[in-house]
C-alpha cells in the first residue's frame, strides 16, 4: 500500500474503495486487504481511504492474469506506484496499456513484458 500520488489519478481514472471492490467479488473488504498484502492486488490510500483501480475488476472477478502479473512486477522490484504507472501507461507495442491488454485477454504478452523488466 502506498499513499496517493496525484499523477497516478490521471493514468488510472476510476478508483474503488475496498467496500466497492469487495461487493462484486462477493468477498469482504478484509479479503481485498489480504489480496493487497499478498501482492495479488494493489491499492493506494486516497483521501484517507484505501482504494484500488476499478480496471482491476472484470465483472465479478479479478482481471484474468492480474495477480500473477502483479507478483512479477513486485519481484522485479517495482513499488506500487511504479507498477500502477506501468500497468496504466500506453505501450505502442501492445497496443494500448498493459491493463487494457489483460482485460482483452492478451495477458500473455503483458506477462512477457513484465518478466523482461526483471532483467
Describe, in plain words, how this protein is organized in 3D.
This protein is an alpha+beta fold. Helices cover 50% and strands 14% of the residues. The chain has helices at 6-12, 18-25, 29-37, 66-75, 80-88, 98-103, 107-117, and strands at 2-3, 15-17, 44-46, 49-53, 57-58, 61-62. It has a 4-stranded mixed β-sheet. It has a two-stranded antiparallel ribbon with strand order 5-6. The two termini are 25 Å apart. 28% of the residues are buried. The model has no long low-confidence stretch (mean pLDDT 90).
Largest sheet: 4 strands, mixed
Strand content: 5-15%
Radius of gyration: 13 Å
Q: For the record, give the distance between the C-alpha atoms at the N and C termini, rounded to a whole number.
A: 25 Å
Structural class: alpha+beta
Side by side, the strands of the main sheet go 1-3-4-2
The helix-strand sequence is EHEHHEEEEHHHH
Please tag this protein with its features:
about 120 residues, alpha+beta, four-stranded mixed beta sheet, globular
What's the structural blueprint in terms of helices and strands?
Blueprint: E1 2-3, H1 6-12, E2 15-17, H2 18-25, H3 29-37, E3 44-46, E4 49-53, E5 57-58, E6 61-62, H4 66-75, H5 80-88, H6 98-103, H7 107-117
Parallel strand pairs: 1-3
Antiparallel strand pairs: 2-4, 3-4, 5-6
Helix pairs in contact: 2-3, 4-7
Summarize the structure.
The protein is α+β, with helices and mostly antiparallel strands and 119 residues long. Helix content is 50%, strand content 14%. The protein contains seven helices and six strands.
Amino acid at each position: 500500500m502506498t499513499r496517493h500520488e496525484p499523477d497516478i489519478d490521471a493514468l488510472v481514472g476510476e478508483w474503488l474503495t475496498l467496500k466497492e471492490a469487495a461487493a462484486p467479488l462477493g468477498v469482504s473488504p478484509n479479503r481485498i486487504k489480504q489480496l493487497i498484502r499478498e501482492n495479488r492486488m494493489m491499492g493506494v490510500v486516497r483521501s484517507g481511504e484505501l482504494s484500488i483501480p476499478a480496471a482491476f475488476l472484470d465483472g465479478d472477478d479479478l482481471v484474468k492474469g492480474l495477480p500473477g502479473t502483479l507478483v512479477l512486477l513486485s519481484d522485479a522490484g517495482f513499488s506500487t506506484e511504479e507498477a500502477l504507472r506501468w500497468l496504466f501507461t500506453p505501450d505502442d507495442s501492445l497496443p494500448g496499456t498493459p491493463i487494457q491488454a489483460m482485460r482483452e485477454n492478451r495477458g500473455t504478452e503483458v506477462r512477457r513484458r513484465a518478466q523482461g523488466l526483471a532483467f
